[in-house]
Amino acid sequence: MTSFKTPYKIIFLLIFGFFEIAYSQTPTTSPTSVENLTDKQIETFLKEAQTRGLTETQIEAAALANGYTAIDIAKLRERINRLKTGTAEVKPTNTNDIKTDKVTREQIGELAERTPVVASDKQEVGKVLETFGSELFSNKNLTFEPNLRLATPKGYILGPDDELKIDITGYAYQHYDAKVSPEGTIKIENLSPIYVNGNTIEQAKAKIIERLKTIFAGLQNGRLNADVTLGNVRSIKVTLVGEVTSPGSYTVSSLASAFNALYLSGGPNKNGSFRNIQIFRNNVLVKKIDVYDFLLKGTLQDNINLHDQDVILVPVFQKKVKIEGEVKRIGIFELNENDNFNTLLGYAGGYTEQAYTNTINVRRNTKTEKKLLTFDPQTSTNFTVQNGDQFYVGTILDRFENKVEIRGAVFRPGEYALGDKIKTIKQLIESAQGLREDAYANRAILIREQEDLDQMYVPVDLSKLLKGEIADIELKRQDQLVVKSIVEIRQERVVNIEGAVNNPGVFPFAENMSVKDIILLAGGFTDGATGKKIEIARRLYNDELSAKTVQIISVDISKELNPAEGGAKLQPFDKVFVRSLPNYEVQQPVYIVGEVNYPGTYTIENKTDRLSDLIDRAGGLRQEAYIAGAKLYRNDKLVFVDFDKALKNKNTASNLILENGDRIEIPKERQTIAIGGQVLNPTRVAYQPDFSFNDYIAQAGGFTDSAFVKKTYVQYANGSTNRTRSFFGIKVYPKIQQGMSIYVPTRNRVRMSPAERIAIGTGFVSLSAVLLTLIRLI
């Protein structure tokens, strides 16, 4: 037994102590303190004791024999009782401030010292609604802790362990700390004990000052003052029984209230009453608490201070009902015996703005099944409520009983109330401030709901109705009057202008619009525009079959756009075309660079200027110019031109007409020929007039094994190309010129797989056999 250490030792001793009295030696180590045992260790001890059939007497005798005192056994018995009842004594948070036989004014029973109570019927999606009031005692933000740092409360009744602070001030000073003894007295130096137990703080003060006068004469003539205040307060024990989440005894401050104790215990459980909580003191009912008074009215008049050994009883609820639907506070509510539906509705916060209040549905449990009741809450104000009733408040219909609407070409479209002021279409239009000027009054549409809710269109001639030529139409609920504008019922009218104007495009048509107007809207004429030969393309509207679908109107106007001169009037959808002057052209630049006397930028003088003309204007060719290598770029693309022919014969097709942006490049004479591709030594060699094509290939070492000789091609200095031609195996190579490049491509040989070679060989063998057979037959 000497090898056992830690709190497990006492468990072992208590379980097997009865047998160790006869057979074991007394342990040499001191017993372990009961306070160091955990609840789990004590629960293990209880299970082992039950298994072995040990009685409490046997266990206590074993503990006494092993060195534990009667106080230790009493503490252990108390903890075992709390574990059996499911409660735990709440201890103060700061043990340094609470010493032996001294309770400071710190809260006993902090929220952090107890297990948070989680309501099992907390409202979530798919779960049952919680009882109204249950969140009060499970909310971590509410503790109902008494304020222990306030002034000495009036009417506070003193008891053992309370501490009084006595101060004498004036021409002399004296301070006493007096603690109320278990006998109910306090002791002051040089005075006999003063009995204060059961006295209020005011009664105790008067009694103490009276006794102090015997040793302080200044208290009699008023030259000294005496003050008695409450210092540290005692702790008390209260018991909570009945339908409590965690029933049992709780150690709380003597300033604690009923709500404080209820909160520490987790409050009423799912069967507990929130309306009839009872407080017993000395076996006498002193207070009934209705939690709803606090929740709904904010009053704490029932939250009285507790006394030592008070008992709080939470009985079983008598009546709970549920209310759902269009009420402000959905939930389950506990009702008193005389409460009716109006009381329940008040607890639920009343109806929402969408509530249907003519009838309320109730689901009620009978002895055998459920039944549905419907009542009018306005006439049945005292509808009797039974336990388990479920009330449902419906929603009003999403429709209007007196709404009419007007839309479209009126000054104030919108919804209006059908009633004394608005009964007919004419009154509705007047309420909407009348028709707009663009309203199409010859036909409006009245949309009306039929009995089966299908819509019906009723045509209305508003022009005649407003003049009184036809009878006014009486409106019905949900009627909608649609008034279209003239613009809405026709295609958008526009005119179009193209050609020599600054901002061509589409413009809205307006009455009395002329050609000059649209030209002005388009930013006026361009610099090269002419007012002559302006054409107007106009649509034809006729039912006759004709090949002519558009009318062309020719107009001549001055470019000054003088409004006094008038002009042709336009019609909707006309298209206007403005021409430019016949010979008007914007300057068009061309460029020449290279071996000419005056390279640079030139402007095309007339529409017949050609390549040779530009070279002449540039001062002609220089002596080192190589005309065969000249190039023409048009729109940044190379155009192959034989400049030699163009200069020798200006009427030849090679002498192209110049276009805007043309660029001519004339290089110097090139005296080499480049050879590349599939030759043994790609190189550049000097041009030799007497060399043939093959001579130049030889200069590069000849063709490689991969050369595709038949596809050899050349590129001349002017960018043009030429290829090798063959005829019955005779190759004709391109003509040799200075500055050209020779290129020999690669032959892409397709290698056959072994299977393909076998197949071809087999084919030849078969073909040979067929040929031999034919020869023999012949």
Automatic annotation (TrEMBL):
Q: Which residues form a coiled coil?
A: none
Ribosomal protein found in the keyword field: no
Q: Where is the Polysaccharide export protein N-terminal domain?
A: 152-214
Which domain of life does this protein belong to?
Bacteria
Family stated for the protein in its record: Belongs to the BexD/CtrA/VexA family.
Membrane topology note = Multi-pass membrane protein
Q: Whose protein is this, by species? A: Emticicia soli
Keywords for this protein:
Cell outer membrane, Ion transport, Lipoprotein, Membrane, Palmitate, Polysaccharide transport, Porin, Signal, Sugar transport, Transmembrane, Transmembrane beta strand, Transport
Q: Where is the Soluble ligand binding domain?
A: 237-281, 320-365, 494-539
Q: What is this protein's record name?
A: SLBB domain-containing protein
Q: Which Pfam family would be a valid example here?
A: SLBB
Its annotated compartments are: Cell outer membrane
